[in-house]
Design brief:
This protein has 213 residues and is of the alpha+beta class. The protein contains one helix and nine strands. Strand 8 and strand 9 form a beta hairpin.
Length: 213
């Protein structure tokens, strides 16, 4: 008895399969793009929150004022910070330093005796291009309703945010590429506490909400 000859795919079957795969891929591309934009927003918000917390911890550890600043290097790529930097309330790049870092963001980080180092005595830095090159940042008042021009927070030796100059209270991070991507906020409390929240979450018991408890 002859065994049946194995049958392959016909050209029409292959074309149908490729067409179906193409349609599925086209449907997935917007979802992947949306996910990538949301990840940029999350990366930027978590980076800023982490920088604020580190600045606060350094102030307590060093028993002196430490400043967290939002900065932008006008002549460099988003992936780096150089000495042409300026303070900017629209940037996700940041510097932790003992003095105002304007014009000195590219220097070496402080590793030894602070008294012997050159100003602005940098402690840490993060460039926006490292994980979130396309996000937009805005600085607002404590209610996140009115935009302000603050670019810095100075923590004292008790870990509290100094009131003069006025500190940043609400940093809003969003992506300009879509109206449906998440917007996240980094909130600074009067006592110096830092938290990240999602204004889209309306349940008061949800830890992600921005609604005060």
């Amino acid at each position: 008895m002859l065994k049946p000859t194995p049958r392959g795919f016909t050209l029409i079957e292959l074309m149908v399969a490729l067409a179906v795969a193409g349609l599925l891929l086209m449907g997935a591309i917007p979802l992947v793009r949306e996910w990538m934009m949301n990840m940029q927003v999350r990366n930027a918000a978590m980076s800023i929150a982490g920088g604020l917390e580190k600045a606060r911890a350094e102030a307590v550890r060093r028993n002196r004022d430490v400043t967290f600043s939002l900065v932008w290097s006008t002549g460099a790529s988003p992936a780096s910070l150089t000495d042409d930097c300026t303070l900017s309330a629209r940037s996700a790049s940041w510097i932790i330093s003992l003095e105002d870092p304007s014009g000195g963001c590219g220097g070496a980080l402080l590793t030894g005796d602070a008294s012997a180092a050159d100003k602005p005595r940098l402690l840490a830095r993060h460039a926006q291009g490292d994980g979130s090159p396309d996000v937009i940042v805005g600085v607002y008042d404590a209610s996140c309703a009115s935009a302000t021009g603050e670019t810095q927070v100075t923590f004292n030796s008790f870990g509290r945010a100094a009131t003069s100059p006025a500190p940043m209270r609400c940093i809003v991070v969003r992506h300009p590429g879509s109206d449906t991507t998440h917007t996240l906020r980094v909130m600074l409390g009067t006592g110096g506490s830092v938290r990240t929240c999602d204004p889209a979450v309306t349940e008061r018991d949800d830890p992600r909400t921005c609604i005060p408890t």
